[in-house]
Amino acid sequence: MEKPLWMIYTTHMFVEVYLLIQVALIPVIVREFQLSLLEASLVATVPSFVALLMNLPIGILADRVSTNRLLFASMLVEGVAAFLVSQTKDFWLLVIAVSLLRVSSPIYHVSGLSQISRVAKQERMSRSIGFHNALGNVGSAAGVISLTLFLSTLGWRWTYLFWSVPILAWGFVILASPHLKSRRAEGTDGLDKGGLRRLPLVFSSGLLLFLIVIGLREIGSTGSTTFMTTFFVETRGLSEAMSSLIFGLGPFIGIIGSLYGGFWAERTGAKKALGWAVLLCALGLTLLAVASDLYLIVPIYVFYSFFSSTVWAPINTLVARLTPLSNRGLSYSVYFFAEGLLISVAPTLAAGVIELTNVWAVLPFSVVFLIACVVTLQLLPAKSSEII
Questions:
Q1: pLDDT by residue (tens digit) across 178-189?
Q2: Other Cβ atoms closer than 10 A to 177
Q3: What is the Cα–Cα distance from 219 to 71, expressed in whole angstroms?
Q4: 281 in Cβ contact with 304 (< 8 Å)
Q5: Which residues contact 133 (CB under 8 A, 6 or more apart)?
Q6: Which strand (E) or helix (H) includes residue 330?
Q7: Would 190 be classed as within a structural domain?
């Protein structure tokens, strides 16, 4: 596999280090800052909304600016923000610092995935996305496992400080690399003055329907993920460290799930693979809602995490195949904007459900949206799987 792809995959690993740490810390933040769950959910909601606003500007830049510069910017923002998180003692300053940290995600994802879609062979697209997501899960697993260690020793803030150093170092490696300096994709000449006027070129009926599918999945998935450790602590009576450890199994299992998802989508088709993956996620959450013993909770959560990770290869493959190559950066930014919009409101929606009922209710809440996602996906026309 080409070296530029592996450099992008490694950058993805560092970007995802903090992805699950923030939601895993919600029970700790509630206790430390004396907050309600609704207030604590802001540490997930506000940063997601900030990242959402960054997607379209980054999409425009991704079709014009060299990939290595954008990836360097992503690492620089993440490393500096992580250091700031490690030093803050005020909740609102924490929200601001985490929001800055989340900006690194759209900078990376729009530019990184756009470049993968251009460099990877089309017949190996799903497989390439599978490797990409596997490295992301390596980062998420490493982040949550390190959080478990620091929670038991020096404190959670050291997790952010610890990872900020290699992240910044890798940023400078990326900046100096000659392998990612391509400026634009073939066919993008003359787009410099287009800006957002190129936006209508991205949309098709298939893509619009697909964005609805993704929105339903994100509400269901984000709602359960955000409060999973809270569910373990308050409903199942597990300790915060044990909850973080179980939660950390998710991205670790996701390494295998992401790889499998790439081969699965390549073999059966992206649409079919996505439908089955989401359906099996709904089954996993249903079983988790009724399991009460630790020896049942762990394998069911592993099952759910595996299939939750298989969705990304078919999702990103479908985005690439539903959108024109000449506007691939802007296309991915539209996708991430729609996805981020739902991610930014899902934690608050789920927290509202919890406030009206209890923590357990977030699981059936998520299952309903996942089932709706599978049903809506069936409306996607067969021609949507063709490369545009």
A1: 766 654 444 444
A2: 16
A3: 28
A4: yes
A5: 12, 254, 258, 261, 262, 309, 312, 313, 316
A6: helix 328-356
A7: no
Q: Which two tokens stand for residue 96?
A: 């601001």
In a domain, 324, yes or no: yes
CA–CA dist 352, 374 (Å, integer): 24
> What range defines the domain where residue 362 resides?
7-178+197-385
Helix, strand, coil percentages, rounded to 5, for the chain: 85, 0, 15
Percentage of the chain beyond pLDDT 90 is 6
Token pair belonging to 223:
């709602």
Residue 2 within any structural domain of the chain: no
CB proximity list for 35: less than 8 A, separation 6 or greater: 29, 91
3-state secondary structure 195-215: HHHHHHHCCCHHHHHHHHHHH
Rounded to whole angstroms, the Cα distance separating 329 from 202 reads 10
Number of domains in the chain: 1
> What is the CB neighbour count within 10 angstroms for residue 142?
18
- Cβ-proximal residues to 32 (8 Å cutoff; 6+ apart), any chain: none
* pTM, 2 dp: 0.68
Asked if residue 184 is part of any domain, the answer here is no
> Could you please report the per-residue DSSP string of 223-259?
HHHHTHHHIIIIIT---HHHHHHHHHHHHHHHHHHHH
Contact, 116 vs 2, CB < 8 A?
A: no
* CATH code, domain carrying 273: 1.20.1250.20
Q: How far apart are CA 276 and CA 36, in angstroms?
A: 36
List, for residues 113-152, the tens digit of each pLDDT value.
777 767 666 666 667 777 777 788 788 878 878 887 887 7
Q: Is 94 helix (H, G, I), strand (E, B) or coil?
A: helix
